[in-house]
């Protein structure tokens, strides 16, 4: 999909705009709690896709691992059972916009529509809730952050699975970077990424990690997520 250039661009933009690692709680310097276990969050973008997401859910269930799914809104139709299953099995469900639109350089109306339409679809299916946003390419113009009604989540470990399309390489890249409180980015639309994700879970569980949702990761570190703020990890 020619994403290489876009992703590079997005990384540059993100460096300019900056995440909020630690978030508001760390700034106030007070009550960050240190989790007793090693926690890590694994996140999946660009789904749901029945051929791959279903197998991933089976594997996560077998391993008792929680994940976070940032869904493309227009792909929900026809996959409602998978999305309901995510919620029922303790995973966090969030939005990756309606049609995977880059949210930089777009009008406020486009931004509201891309985000709002997905939120509506998720509320219709799963009930009222806060469906956190992962902006495509990790980027939203800083001037538009106040238009976003939920926390925004980026990542701290990106093995570029969409580019490698190789289970062993993706697994190795994630394991090399793995550390407590990090947020791993993968895409559950590739069979190689599903296989890599399950290998990563096996390896890190063997090292004493527990896989939690992004929301659980921030909470465990005393971070109170705020709307319109971009978080890249759970580091307090
Ligand atoms: Ni994406």
CA-based gyration radius: 16 Å
> Averaging pLDDT over every residue, what do you get?
89
Report the principal-axis shape.
globular
Secondary-structure element order, as H and E? HHEHEHEHEHHEHEHE
Which hetero ligands occur in this complex? nickel (II) ion
pLDDT under 50 segments (min length 5)? Answer: 1-17, 23-30
User: Percentage of helical residues?
Assistant: 40-55%
Structural class: alpha/beta
Number of strands: 7
Q: Compute the number of helices.
A: 9
- What profile does the largest beta sheet have? 5 strands, parallel
> How big a fraction of the residues is strand?
5-15%
Distance between the termini: 35 Å
What can you tell me about this protein's structure?
The structure is a single chain. The protein is of the alpha/beta class and 236 residues long. It is 43% helix and 12% strand. It has helices at 3-17, 23-28, 50-63, 80-88, 108-126, 161-164, 167-177, 191-206, 214-220, and strands at residues 38-45, 68-71, 92-95, 152-153, 183-187, 209-211, 230-231. Helix 3 runs parallel beside helix 8 and helix 7 (167-177) runs parallel beside helix 8. The termini are far apart. Bound molecules: nickel (II) ion. Nickel (II) ion binds next to loops.
Summary tags:
alpha/beta; disordered N terminus; 43% helix; binds nickel (II) ion; 7 strands; single chain; 236 residues; 5-stranded parallel sheet
How is this structure best summarized?
It contains 9 helices and 7 strands.
What's the layout of helices and strands?
Elements (H helix, E strand, L loop, with lengths): L2 H15 L5 H6 L9 E8 L4 H14 L4 E4 L8 H9 L3 E4 L12 H19 L25 E2 L7 H4 L2 H11 L5 E5 L3 H16 L2 E3 L2 H7 L9 E2 L5
Parallel strand pairs: 1-2, 1-5, 1-6, 2-3, 4-7
Bound molecules: nickel (II) ion.
């Amino acid at each position: 999909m020619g994403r290489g250039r876009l992703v590079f661009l997005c990384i540059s933009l993100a460096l300019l705009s900056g995440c909020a690692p630690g978030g508001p709680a760390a700034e106030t310097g007070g009550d960050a709690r240190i989790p007793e276990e090693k926690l890590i969050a694994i996140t999946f973008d660009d789904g749901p896709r029945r051929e791959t997401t279903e197998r991933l859910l089976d594997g996560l269930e077998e391993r008792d691992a929680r994940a976070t799914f940032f869904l493309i809104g227009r792909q929900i139709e026809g996959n409602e059972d998978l999305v309901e299953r995510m919620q029922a099995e303790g995973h966090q469900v969030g939005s990756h916009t309606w049609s995977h639109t880059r949210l930089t350089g777009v009008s406020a109306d486009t931004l509201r529509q891309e985000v709002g339409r997905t939120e509506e679809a998720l509320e219709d299916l799963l009930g009222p809730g806060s469906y956190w946003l992962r902006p495509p390419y990790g980027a939203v113009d800083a001037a538009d952050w106040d238009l976003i009604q939920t926390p925004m989540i980026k990542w701290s470990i990106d093995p570029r699975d969409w580019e490698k399309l190789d289970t062993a390489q993706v697994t190795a890249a994630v394991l090399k970077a793995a550390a407590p409180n990090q947020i791993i980015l993968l895409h559950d639309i590739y069979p190689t990424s599903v296989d890599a994700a399950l290998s990563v879970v096996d390896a890190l569980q063997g090292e004493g990690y527990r896989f939690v949702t992004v929301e659980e990761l921030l909470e465990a570190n005393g971070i109170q997520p705020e709307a319109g703020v971009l978080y890249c990890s759970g580091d307090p």
